[in-house]
Design brief:
Distance between the termini of chain A: 26 Å
Order of helices and strands of chain A: HEEEEHEEHEEH
Oligomer: homodimer
Shape of chain A: globular
Largest interface: A-B, 43 and 42 residues
Radius of gyration of chain A: 16 Å
Helix content of chain A: 10-25%
Largest sheet of chain A: 8 strands, antiparallel
């Protein structure tokens, strides 16, 4: 069943309008959930993260790159939270090396959206990472759930957004 | 270093004032992040979840009970999101069986806080689960991070809250 237009808009808003999500990483002690800032790249081909190598989630990613990011509409505290839209992006996280051809573009995109992160680009322990979404599982409420692959995400998020 | 009073209040608000968090579970395909509703039990000795056995996170928990729940202050979209308070609770999830001595109390507590979940207690695929926090990692912003165990959580969350 194709997504209806309302859910397409809700999903695009989560991916491109939000900037704070929860990352699941794996460690020998079990899975870890932590909040991270994120910025979607054009066509949602990648999700940029700027992380400290001193943080547990980063150490986890360097040992096991598979990860999952959930982005949820904010809970206003009223009604049934299960009706809130959310999307889980699953895939693997790669390092965006400072000498990579796309580093400057990625850094500029991240900082355009999250200018407050500027000073942290001067910290030695911070680095840029990219989650490559293999699958997106969107839930817009009861009976409104869809799974999208990279092509579906690219269609939703215009390359020039 | 002991937590300052402001951070104690922020942490208590996350645990007792919020009701929508992100759960990290483990699967053979890697970690999974998903949004779940939660209700803290007295003294934060347990975090109640009401989950469908049809959901991927529940299947994951039944195979690997170790999990982690992150609760974050909502992002208003301005400023640096890294300054937002959040807490990660890590531990193992157990089933609260319908014939358990504490089931009725747990169910009543859950429904008092999340009355919209009422109809789902009649669905055969839903069940009550409890995350037992082994450790809480609170971050109130830069340079404001503390790790608490069950005793620290119990002190923060009064047993009659």
């Amino acid at each position: 069943m194709a997504m209806d237009h309302e859910d397409e808009l809700l999903l695009a808003e989560l991916l491109c309008g939000r900037r704070w999500g929860a990352l699941a990483t794996a460690s020998a002690d079990g899975p870890l959930a932590s909040m991270v800032a994120f910025v979607a790249e054009p066509g949602c081909s990648g999700i940029l993260l700027h992380l400290s190598r001193l943080a547990a989630h980063t150490r986890n990613l360097l040992a096991e790159p598979r990860a999952s990011l959930v982005i949820g509409a904010p809970d206003g505290g009223a009604g049934d939270p299960q009706t809130l839209a959310r999307v889980t992006l699953s895939g693997a996280v790669e390092v965006v090396e400072p000498d990579a051809a796309d580093y400057a573009t990625a850094r500029a995109r991240y900082l355009e959206r999250l200018p407050g992160a500027g000073p942290r680009f001067g910290f030695g322990d911070f680095g840029l990472f990219r989650l490559r979404p293999r699958e997106a599982r969107y839930v817009g409420g009861f009976g409104r759930a869809w799974t999208l692959g990279p092509a579906g995400l690219a269609r939703l998020c215009p390359a020039d957004s």
